[in-house]
Specification:
Helix content: 10-25%
CATH topology of the largest domain: L,D-transpeptidase catalytic domain-like
Strand content: 25-35%
CATH class of the largest domain: Mainly Beta
Structural class: alpha+beta
Shape: elongated
CATH superfamily of the largest domain: L,D-transpeptidase catalytic domain-like
CATH architecture of the largest domain: Beta Barrel
Radius of gyration: 45 Å
Largest sheet: 6 strands, mixed
């Protein structure tokens, strides 16, 4: 009985005293706390749209003022810098303020990759001025870009004496810009016919007053400009004997007006050289000379009832009577007159 009690006491003591046989298996260590999850990375900011430069240029058009014949195909080249993939441009065509065509085109990458480009073709049979506009609407990559508008004159194919309308107005506008003296706006009258004659003389065509397809073609190509031989002479008159035209040159050495003339016939040629007006007679004299400006001896610039397309005078510079008064008033005493072949 005592022994059992002692053993029991010993076992209880063993549980209380470290290092005893009952304490050899240690208690399990506590599990470590999980590490906090990393904060999510901030989302990348969207790319900021950049400004672009858009330009357009008409191609396959002629003259210093872009022009084509009615029915001819021409095109517009556009460039947008910088190049960004999948950008589009709206190209719009107007006549008289009225929209006639819209084309939405996708930009192609240029060879350098620095810009994008497009080509749009266009054709119309209706004469008149066509205005081209182009716009790139804003995208996340590129801001809105608007090209400077460009204009192209679409010229008719023919106009004839007595006709009226758009074809005649276009003809007169093109001739007038070059310095040829035309008549009543929109009417193919006698003065407009003489302007056509002078134009045909300058470009080396048959000498008549027909405004056919070839006349319009040459106008569209920018031909017919009178080449001033003596721009340093300031305000003066030039008579080109070979072409049978007379031009009034302004003080800046540029053409102001161009008229058909008939100079001295082969038997009575116009004297060549540089002269000055020394006498002016207003009215019509006994020889039928109208509003005469004399530049050497009895030779004068004057109106006359007959002004053929070839040289037929007695040495003077004949001009049509309806034009004689305005030429007479333009010329002053001392005005230089240059005659040459």
């Amino acid at each position: 009985m005592r022994r059992s009690t002692a053993l029991s006491a010993f076992g209880t003591l063993a549980l209380l005293v470290p290092g005893t046989a009952m304490a050899q298996d240690p208690a399990p260590a506590p599990e470590p706390a999980p590490a906090p999850a990393p904060a999510p990375a901030p989302a990348p900011a969207p790319a900021k749209a950049v400004s672009g430069v858009l330009t357009i240029t008409p191609e396959r058009v002629g003259g210093s003022r872009a022009s084509v014949l009615a029915g001819s195909r021409w095109r517009v080249r556009g460039t947008l810098t910088p190049y960004v993939a999948d950008q589009r441009v709206a190209v719009r065509f107007y006549r008289g303020g009225k929209k006639i065509l819209v084309k939405n085109v996708r930009l192609l990458r240029s060879r350098t990759g620095k810009s994008g480009y497009f080509l749009v073709s266009f054709r119309t049979k209706t004469p008149g001025r066509v205005t081209v506009r182009a716009t790139h609407r804003a995208t996340p990559e590129l801001k809105t870009a608007i090209a400077k508008a460009r204009t192209v004159d679409v010229l008719p194919l023919r106009a004839s004496a007595g006709s009226r309308g758009q074809a005649v107005r276009v003809l007169q506008q093109r001739l007038s810009r070059l310095g040829y003296v035309v008549g009543r706006r929109g009417v193919f009258d006698a003065r407009t016919g003489r302007a056509v004659m002078a134009f045909r003389k300058v470009v080396g065509m048959a000498r008549n007053e027909r405004a056919d397809r070839e006349v319009f073609r040459r106008l569209a190509a920018g031909q017919g400009r009178f080449r001033v031989r003596y721009p340093s002479h300031g305000r003066h008159v030039e008579a080109d004997i070979s072409r049978q035209v007379l031009a009034l040159i302004g003080p800046n050495g540029k053409v102001e007006r161009i008229y058909p003339t008939s100079t001295g016939a082969p038997a009575t040629p116009t004297i060549l050289g540089s002269f000055r007006v020394y006498r002016k007679d207003f009215g019509t004299n006994a020889l039928g000379m109208v509003h005469s400006s004399y530049f050497i001896r009895g030779y004068a610039i004057h109106g006359y009832r007959s002004v053929p397309p070839y040289n037929a005078s007695h040495g003077c510079l004949r001009v049509p009577i309806p034009d004689a008064n305005s030429i007479f008033r333009w010329i002053r005493y001392g005005t230089r007159v240059d005659t040459y072949r």
